[in-house]
Design a protein that fits this description.
By secondary structure, the chain is mostly helical. It has one domain. 74% of the residues lie in helices and 0% in strands. It is a multi-pass membrane protein.
C-alpha cells in the first residue's frame, strides 16, 4: 500500500524536529548553564511538545496502516485510543503553546 503524502510529510517533520533538538542541545550557550537550563525557554518547550506530537502522529499512521485489513476489535480499540491521544495533544498542548 502506498503512503499518502501527509504521512510522508509527518515523518519528515518529525525527523526535522529531532535534528533541530540534537543541534540545539549541542550548542554551548551560557544561558543553558544557568537555573532551568533550556527548559526555561518557551521555544524549547514548544519544540519538545511538537516533536512528541508528531511522534504520536507517525505512530498513529503506522498503526492504522498495519491494522487496515484486520478485523480485530482489540486493535481497533487501541487505534481509537491512540487517535484520541493525538487529538487531545493537538487541542491541549501543541496548538495553544505553538500559537503563543
Amino acid at each position: 500500500m502506498a503512503l499518502i503524502p501527509s504521512q510522508v510529510l509527518r515523518v519528515a517533520i518529525l525527523l526535522s524536529y529531532f535534528s533541530i533538538l540534537c543541534n540545539y542541545k549541542a550548542i554551548d550557550m551560557p544561558a543553558h548553564q544557568t537555573y532551568g537550563g533550556s527548559w526555561k525557554f518557551l521555544t524549547f518547550i514548544d519544540l519538545v511538545i511538537q516533536a512528541v506530537f508528531f511522534g504520536v502522529c507517525v505512530l498513529t499512521d503506522l498503526s492504522s496502516l498495519l491494522t487496515k485489513g484486520s478485523e480485530s476489535q482489540e486493535q481497533e480499540r487501541q487505534l481509537r485510543k491512540l487517535i484520541g491521544l493525538r487529538d487531545w495533544m493537538m487541542a491541549v498542548l501543541a496548538f495553544p503553546v505553538g500559537v503563543i
